[in-house]
Structures are given as structure tokens and as C-alpha cells.
Write a structure and sequence with these properties.
By secondary structure, this protein is mostly helical. Helix content is 62%, strand content 6%. The chain has 7 helices and 2 strands, in the order αααααββαα. It has a two-stranded antiparallel ribbon. Strand 1 and strand 2 form a beta hairpin. It is globular and about 45 Å long. The two termini are 18 Å apart.
Length: 166
């Protein structure tokens, strides 16, 4: 995996996260936090999970040992989520610039939240995070439709259609 490919995936991931946040912005607080029987009970809780995972993985890649997931209750509004995501995105940018093909191929060990040790090449972990976020953004899309809201598409090819050619 080339560093430029990973950087492109993370540009897409940022774009898709922002479109998802834009899609949920019109929700009332009741709809934003309504328990709906999903993997994570509400739109808010699902978004907090995506944000937490993106943050935790970045912390691991930077050699830090993050605490457990960010509590969904810390994000009573979409704006609160958006502000925390800005911090994660800000911290991610310089990390992405350090990537080289050699670094991406190197195995990186970490402890999961259960304390179990795993090791994968960095590029596989980074691809996993984008895939994980896409999976849960799809869940948010379903929840939005169940709430009568109109989600924006976050398809990768739509990203390419909307972005200037690089």
C-alpha cells in the first residue's frame, strides 16, 4: 500500500464523516438521542462510536495508550461531536504526512480494549479504520431513514465525482 493511497482514503473518510454530520444536524435532540435498538442505541451513540474508534486508533499509531471509548453522553449535540472530530482530524494530518511505504508495511502491535495483544502492518490497521467508519456510517444512514430524515450519500465513487481530479 502506498502512502498516497492511504492519504486519499483518509481524505475520503473525512469528507464522509462531515457529510454524515451534516445529515444529522437537522435532527431534534430527541431524534438525535432516541434509542432505536441498533448496535449503538442512537444516531448520537453510533457517531460517538465512529469518532472514538478513529481517535483510539490514531492514539495507538502515535504510541499512546488511550483510555476506553469516549462516552456518548459527552456529546449532547452534533456540534459537540463536530468540535471533538476537529481535534482528531487536526492531530491526524501531521501523522499522515509521516507515512512512507516502509512504515506502512511495518507491523504495529497494540492492546485492544480487552487487554489482548494484536499486531498488523500499519496499512492494514489504517484501511480497517476507514472500513469500520464506513460500516457505521451506513448504520447512521439507516437510522436517519427510520427517523424520516434524508441522509447524504457517502459512497466512495461519489466522493471522486465531487472532488477535483488529483
Amino acid at each position: 500500500m502506498q502512502a498516497e493511497t492511504i492519504r486519499e482514503l483518509y481524505l475520503y473518510n473525512h469528507w464522509a464523516d462531515q457529510r454524515t454530520l451534516d445529515s444529522v444536524t437537522p435532527l431534534s435532540t430527541d431524534k438525535f438521542t432516541r434509542e432505536m435498538g441498533n448496535s449503538f442505541s442512537s444516531v448520537r451513540d453510533t457517531l460517538a462510536h465512529i469518532l472514538s474508534a478513529e481517535w483510539i486508533w490514531l492514539e495507538r499509531w502515535c504510541g499512546r495508550f488511550p483510555p476506553p471509548m469516549l462516552p456518548a453522553a459527552d456529546f449532547p449535540t452534533v456540534e459537540a461531536l463536530r468540535r471533538r472530530w476537529e481535534v482528531v482530524d487536526h492531530d491526524l494530518k501531521p501523522f499522515l504526512e509521516t507515512l512512507t511505504p516502509e512504515r506502512l508495511r511495518e507491523p504495529l502491535a497494540y492492546l485492544n480494549r480487552a487487554g489482548e495483544r494484536f499486531s498488523y502492518p500499519l496499512w492494514q490497521q489504517m484501511a480497517h479504520v476507514v472500513n469500520h467508519s464506513s460500516y457505521h456510517r451506513g448504520q447512521v444512514t439507516t437510522l436517519l431513514r427510520q427517523l424520516g430524515a434524508a441522509p447524504q450519500s457517502t459512497d466512495l465513487l461519489q466522493y471522486y465525482d465531487m472532488m477535483p481530479a488529483r
